[in-house]
Amino acid sequence: MKCRFCGKKAYIKLHHPKMYLCREHFMEYFERKVKRTIEKYRLLGKGERILVAVSGGKDSAVVSYVLKKLGYDIECLHINLGIGEYSAKSEEYTKKQSEMINSKLHIVRIKELLGAGIGELKTSRPTCSYCGITKRYIFNKFAHDNSFDVIVTGHNLDDEASFIFSNIMNWNTQYLAKQGPLLPGEGKFVKKVKPLYEVTEREVVAYALAVGIDYMLEECPYSRGATTLSYKEILNQMEEKRPGTKMNFVKGYLRKRYLFEQEVEKRELKECEVCGMPSSGEICSFCRVWRLKKPVELEVKEVKR
Ligand SMILES: [Zn+2]
Ligand SMILES: [Zn+2]
């Protein structure tokens, strides 16, 4: 099959909209789609300091590559979770990826910072639960302490669709009130955005391959058999029968999101007694899980400005 624009040999067949594209025209299509997402949802403002959360996987590698290509000045932050070989390899990938795009990479190593890696902490919480708390907290506090205006994550359309789907299946309505391509900042919470919101996982993989990005394929050893994977599979089956299903599902959700707003418990946020970051209780869940007596130090001394 041939590219619909130039007649060269097709690199990919897109299902929605249905068309064949050569490698160059696919790259152009993908980058334009990301650019449109940024403009449509006003994700990034002029002069904002941008921090990209990078894991070594394809999504964060692709979003940082495309942002750089679109002319944004970015810095990256990788959290080494301290999960043996898996984390060592992830860190190596983030180093290679930021060298490729010539962007500054910050690395926070959980084991050095907190004395234990994810999976080594004795707590009643499930590993993925306190890992999530830890990552969210560090990304936010790092951005806050080093005066970044926005945190970029690599979530793609499939991630969003399966997140919404699983939260509807479990009627976690309070989570459904505040999902979307942009989570506004508030107080010490830094704004979070998802420029890959409208591209599918398949398109992200094809783009990484097209531009030659090397990325971590292995899944975290603790996430094996995660239920979000089965939600993704179901959505993929539906997408195959009716191309556009995922996009329509997510766009429909954004239109109806206001219906879930009343489900949010309006709780006054206090400041954590240990670290001073926003918290619903006396001590925030991060300081509680890690049993901290003083706040973690995340300010980078040589940061410019
Ligand atoms: Zn072409
Ligand atoms: Zn705290």
From TrEMBL:
<keyword id="KW-0408">Iron</keyword>
<feature type="binding site">
    <location>
        <position position="272"/>
    </location>
    <ligand>
        <name>Zn(2+) 2</name>
    </ligand>
</feature>
<dbReference type="Pfam" id="PF01171">
    <property type="entry name" value="ATP_bind_3"/>
</dbReference>
<dbReference type="InterPro" id="IPR054306">
    <property type="entry name" value="TtuA-like_LIM_N"/>
</dbReference>
<keyword id="KW-0411">Iron-sulfur</keyword>
<dbReference type="InterPro" id="IPR014729">
    <property type="entry name" value="Rossmann-like_a/b/a_fold"/>
</dbReference>
<keyword id="KW-0862">Zinc</keyword>
<dbReference type="GO" id="GO:0016740">
    <property type="term" value="F:transferase activity"/>
</dbReference>
<dbReference type="InterPro" id="IPR000541">
    <property type="entry name" value="Ncs6/Tuc1/Ctu1"/>
</dbReference>
<feature type="binding site">
    <location>
        <position position="287"/>
    </location>
    <ligand>
        <name>Zn(2+) 2</name>
    </ligand>
</feature>
<dbReference type="InterPro" id="IPR035107">
    <property type="entry name" value="tRNA_thiolation_TtcA_Ctu1"/>
</dbReference>
<keyword id="KW-0067">ATP-binding</keyword>
<keyword id="KW-0004">4Fe-4S</keyword>
<dbReference type="InterPro" id="IPR011063">
    <property type="entry name" value="TilS/TtcA_N"/>
</dbReference>
<feature type="binding site">
    <location>
        <position position="79"/>
    </location>
    <ligand>
        <name>ATP</name>
    </ligand>
</feature>
<feature type="domain" description="2-thiouridine synthetase TtuA-like N-terminal LIM">
    <location>
        <begin position="2"/>
        <end position="26"/>
    </location>
</feature>
<feature type="binding site">
    <location>
        <position position="275"/>
    </location>
    <ligand>
        <name>Zn(2+) 2</name>
    </ligand>
</feature>
<protein>
    <submittedName>
        <fullName>TIGR00269 family protein</fullName>
    </submittedName>
</protein>
<dbReference type="GO" id="GO:0005524">
    <property type="term" value="F:ATP binding"/>
</dbReference>
<dbReference type="GO" id="GO:0046872">
    <property type="term" value="F:metal ion binding"/>
</dbReference>
<dbReference type="GO" id="GO:0002143">
    <property type="term" value="P:tRNA wobble position uridine thiolation"/>
</dbReference>
<keyword id="KW-0460">Magnesium</keyword>
<keyword id="KW-0547">Nucleotide-binding</keyword>
<keyword id="KW-0479">Metal-binding</keyword>
<feature type="binding site">
    <location>
        <position position="154"/>
    </location>
    <ligand>
        <name>ATP</name>
    </ligand>
</feature>
<feature type="binding site">
    <location>
        <position position="25"/>
    </location>
    <ligand>
        <name>Zn(2+) 1</name>
    </ligand>
</feature>
<feature type="binding site">
    <location>
        <position position="59"/>
    </location>
    <ligand>
        <name>ATP</name>
    </ligand>
</feature>
<feature type="binding site">
    <location>
        <position position="3"/>
    </location>
    <ligand>
        <name>Zn(2+) 1</name>
    </ligand>
</feature>
<dbReference type="GO" id="GO:0051539">
    <property type="term" value="F:4 iron, 4 sulfur cluster binding"/>
</dbReference>
<feature type="domain" description="tRNA(Ile)-lysidine/2-thiocytidine synthase N-terminal">
    <location>
        <begin position="50"/>
        <end position="217"/>
    </location>
</feature>
<dbReference type="GO" id="GO:0000049">
    <property type="term" value="F:tRNA binding"/>
</dbReference>
<feature type="binding site">
    <location>
        <position position="284"/>
    </location>
    <ligand>
        <name>Zn(2+) 2</name>
    </ligand>
</feature>
<feature type="binding site">
    <location>
        <position position="6"/>
    </location>
    <ligand>
        <name>Zn(2+) 1</name>
    </ligand>
</feature>
<feature type="binding site">
    <location>
        <begin position="53"/>
        <end position="55"/>
    </location>
    <ligand>
        <name>ATP</name>
    </ligand>
</feature>
<feature type="binding site">
    <location>
        <position position="22"/>
    </location>
    <ligand>
        <name>Zn(2+) 1</name>
    </ligand>
</feature>
<keyword id="KW-0808">Transferase</keyword>
<dbReference type="GO" id="GO:0002144">
    <property type="term" value="C:cytosolic tRNA wobble base thiouridylase complex"/>
</dbReference>
<feature type="binding site">
    <location>
        <position position="159"/>
    </location>
    <ligand>
        <name>ATP</name>
    </ligand>
</feature>
<dbReference type="Pfam" id="PF22082">
    <property type="entry name" value="TtuA_LIM_N"/>
</dbReference>
